[in-house]
Each structure stands twice: as C-alpha cells, then as structure tokens.
Amino acid sequence: TMQAQWNAVDDYFCQQLVPQDAALEAALADSAAAGLPAINVAPNQGKFLNLLARIHGARRILEIGTLGGYSTIWLARALPENGRLVTLEYEPRHVEVAAANLARAGVAGQVDIIPGAAADSLQRLIDDGAPPFDLVFIDADKPNNPVYLELALRLSRPGTVIVGDNVARQGEVANPANPDPAIVGTRRFIELMGSHPRLSATAIQTVGGKGYDGFALAIVEG
Ligand code: SAM
C-alpha cells in the first residue's frame, strides 16, 4: 500500500538523518504510558521545525498545542542560550506530562508552559505586552486556527514566521462541502493566510508515517 511505502521512506529518512535521542524517545514513551494520543509531529518533522527555527535564528518561539512536549523539545533545542519558548496547552494532564518531558530533556529552564485555552492565553500575552515572537507553531484544535492566526499576528513583527500543521487533512481541505469544523477551520486559516495584507504564505502537501497531510508556512510582512 502507499502508506507502507510512506512509512518505509520515513523510517529510512529518520535512520539516516535523525539520530536516536534518549530524551525525545522517553518523551514519546511517557506520553503513551500516560494515555496521551500519539498526535505529535513525526521525528523528521520535528527536526524540520528545529532546522527552520535555526535557519531563522529564532530567539522567541510561540507554540500553540503542547501535548507531551515532543515538538516543544525540538523547537526549544533550536534556541540560543538566552532564548525563550512559550507553549500553550488546555489539558492539565498534557501540561503535567510535558513539564516532566521538558525537564528530562534539559530545556525546562527555557520553556514556559501556559495552561488553559490558547485563545485566552494569547489574549493575556497581548494584554501583558509580550515582546513579539520570531516563530509561531500552530498545532492545537484546528477549528480555532483562524482565531490563533489573528491573535498570533498581534504577537508578531515583520519577519515573524508562522507554521500551521495538518492543513491537507487527507485532501479534504480542498472540499468546500465538508462540514467538519476542523476542515472548515483549516480552510478559513488558509484563506486568511492568502488574503491577509500582513502575510505572505504557502502550503505544502506531505506524505509520511503520519499519512497524507501538509503544513502551511507564512512570513509576516508588515
Ligand atoms: N505540537 C504537539 C507535538 O507535535 O508534539 C502536538 C499537539 S496536539 C496535535 C494538539 C494539542 O492541542 C493537544 O494536546 C490538545 O490538548 C491541545 N488543545 C486542544 N484544544 C486546545 C485549546 N483550546 N487551547 C490549548 N490547547 C488545546
């Protein structure tokens, strides 16, 4: 099947390009043991995020959707010593598991996990006058993606990079008749990225161990 082939290629890429890492593997193992869903990014995607943050020289990273902190570890490791990552998570159990995973990975000192609904946390960051972020990774509840994009823009500067995960959704993103709130939210997200005067954006379809999906990438222009 196609999926078997995609898995084999992901396995090969990960073997050759993504060295085994005890803290990342323990983060996944403990997340699974705690009953968290295995909806983290794949290892080669995590490394992609890490490389993107390093290419960009990101010093302040915002993540929306922590889960067990797997992508958080990849992104935090891209930071310089004085860098900071803020990650937003609704589920208290996920916050707890992520905190332990981040501590074991040695990045807890650079990461603030803010518990609660991400839209509320983002509004609080705006109200508190948080300095702009260099990179934003949006990976939480997909129906809220347009809300997160608007709020993230208020925490951005010209040059801020915004990444949105899971935008192809087995191709259903191209189906305007699909009433699934995740599809509707993803379509609004893409359309907002395309029409927003402050954004220049693209989206790329992907296949791999996580199936057929994709990500959107934007830069803030003004
Ligand atoms: N970025 C993680 C990774 O790759 O390791 C995966 C994140 S998972 C796809 C989405 C997370 O968003 C879940 O942990 C879920 O509890 C969280 N979430 C869902 N709705 C939320 C909300 N309204 N505010 C904050 N987090 C939310």
CATH H-tier superfamily = Vaccinia Virus protein VP39
What is the 3D form? Answer: globular
**CATH fold name, please?**
Rossmann fold
CATH class placement: Alpha Beta
CATH architecture: 3-Layer(aba) Sandwich
| Structural domains: how many | 1
What Rg do the Cα atoms give?
Answer: 17 Å
Secondary-structure element string: HHHEHEHEHEHEHEE
Q: What class, by secondary structure content?
A: alpha/beta
- Quantity of strands, as a count: 7
What fraction of the residues are assigned to beta strands by DSSP? 15-25%
In the sheet with the most strands, the strands line up as 3-2-1-4-5-7-6
Taking pLDDT < 50 over at least 5 consecutive residues as the criterion, the unreliable ranges are: none
